Amino acid sequence: MKSMPDLWKSPTLKSLVIYFIISAGLLVVTARLIVISVKDPSILNLLRDILYITIMVSIIFLMKYHYQTWIKFPHEELRLQEMKFRELFENASDAIFLYEVRDDLTPTQFLEVNRVACEQLGYSHDELLAMTPVDIQIDKNFQKVQNHIKNMINNGPTTTENFHIAKGGQSIPCELSMRIFQFERKKVVLSIVRYIAERKKAEEQLLRSEKLAIVGEMAAGVAHEIRNPLTAIKGFLQLLQEQEQNHYYATIILSEVNRINKIVSDFLILAKPHEQEMNPVDLCTITKNAIELMRPKGYMTNVQLTYHCVVEPCFSIGNEDHLKQVLINVLNNAIEAMPKGGIVRVDIQRSEENMLLIRIIDQGVGIAKERIEKLGEPFFTTKEKGTGLGLTVSKRIIEAHHGSLVFTSEEGTGTTVEIYLPAV
Questions:
Q1: Is the distance from CB of 404 to CB of 389 less than 8 angstroms?
Q2: pLDDT in tens, 111-155
Q3: Burial of residue 62, with CB atoms counted within 10 A of its CB: 0-12 exposed, 13-18 middle, 19 or more buried
Q4: β-pairing, 95-101 with 342-351?
Q5: CATH dotted code for 279-422
Q6: What is the dihedral of CA 283, 286, 291, 292, to 10 degrees?
Q7: Are 335 and 326 in contact (CB under 8 A)?
Q8: Gap between the Cα atoms of 82 and 89, Å rounded
Q9: Does position 241 have pLDDT exceeding 60, yes or no?
Q10: What is the pLDDT of residue 130?
Q11: Strand, helix or coil at 362?
């Protein structure tokens, strides 16, 4: 129940009191004037009744006007503004969180959250309202939240990057813009959160592209400088190889020279992946040839290569030698991942969006999840004696063919490599 001071604050009650005082005063003054001016009692009573009716009608009209002008319309306008703000709040493209801050700088449960916050974190509206800002922090660091609040109080609105934890347990990178303000004598924090997983992925892709561009420029210069003397050395070694006493050593040296030459060739592909002749090629035939080339190496470690194609023939536009090099690189990695033997399965099928899919599955040691994302980066390798260029070159070749190279792996189970190429 409201107290008398609270009731007196009501605009309606104030208006009624004011109108009552004014009308009472008018009645007293006017009645007195009529009594003084008119001597006939019947006329006096008639005038008095007319006066009462006129004043009452005027009071009713004034009260109605006051209600519509000063009470009803402002309340209606306030309601419309509230609806507009609610619509903006719910349809904002970023997540919005509102929560109160106690005197000891501890945050309360959320006062309100919008639709985007629920969708991004996977919680219902009621579930989020039962939580605090600490509950959605990836490290649930209470002290960090308090420090952010203290920073806002001392320095004003702040913007920072952090990670939120979704209902399913996955961490989501986000950018938080926060400000604190007074509302009904309480400290309230408005936190606008933009989830930036896609932006982070694009930044990583840009950084990777820049690294590849730098490596490509270096590769082009180094490759040409190395290849010229290599050609002369290889020629003289072939002459020495013809002599019986030098045959053994010349063969070893020639093998290493050929290995260096292959690395130089990889450098050149890395530097200029688009400079290749494109023709219609049969991926089934190329895959079979690559398998036959790698089969002897598989026999040496008891690895069996199997092949299955459901869309034979399967044509794409590409460079046969380069595509064969990609398949040899992937098959070689699969065989080397199975030192105790096993099966490498190669399947070709048609995928969605008019793409051909070459899937290579091994039963090797697998690759750790955190290393999968680095596959294809220059000089990153999981092998003891690897150069870190094989998959980088393979990825560049496939991208030059308007395709993609996808890796999935599980430690102790094996790795799957999927090569997507446009079908014709």
A1: no
A2: 999 989 999 899 999 999 999 998 998 878 788 888 888 888 888
A3: middle
A4: unpaired
A5: 3.30.565.10
A6: 150
A7: no
A8: 10
A9: yes
A10: 92
A11: coil
Q: In whole angstroms, give the CA distance from residue 7 to residue 22.
A: 21
| Contact residues for 307 (Cβ-Cβ < 8 A; gap 6+) | 287, 288, 291, 346
Please state, in angstroms and rounded to a whole number, the distance separating the CA atoms of residues 180 and 105: 12
Beta strands in 315-362 (DSSP E): 315-318, 342-351, 355-361
Answer yes or no: same fold for 92-195 and 279-422: no
Residues 43-57: tens digit of each pLDDT: 656 666 666 676 666
Residue-range domain boundaries for the chain: 4-90, 92-195, 217-271, 279-422
Structure tokens at 249: 């050593």
CA distance 254 to 251: 5
Six-digit token string for 89: 């709040």
Cα torsion at 204, 210, 211, 216 (round to 10°)?
150
Q: Under a CB-based contact definition with an 8 Å cutoff, are residues 396 and 270 in contact? A: yes
Residues 6+ apart with CB under 8 A from 168: 122
- Give which of 164, 65, 153 is closest to 123, Cα–Cα: 164
CATH superfamily of 92-195: PAS domain (3.30.450.20)
Pairing of strands 342-351, 303-309: parallel
If you average pLDDT over every residue of the chain, what do you get?
77
What is the average pLDDT across 282-288? 91
Quick check: 359 pLDDT over 90?
A: yes
Please state whether 358 falls in left (phi above 0), alpha (psi between -120 and 50) or beta: beta
Rounded to two decimals, the pTM is: 0.46
387 is written with which tokens? 């150069």
Q: Give DSSP secondary structure letters for 78-137.
A: HHHHHHHHHHHHHH-SSEEEEEEE-TTS-EEEEEEE-HHHHHHHT--HHHHHT--GGGGB
Please determine, for residue 203, whether its predicted confidence score (pLDDT) is greater than 80.
no
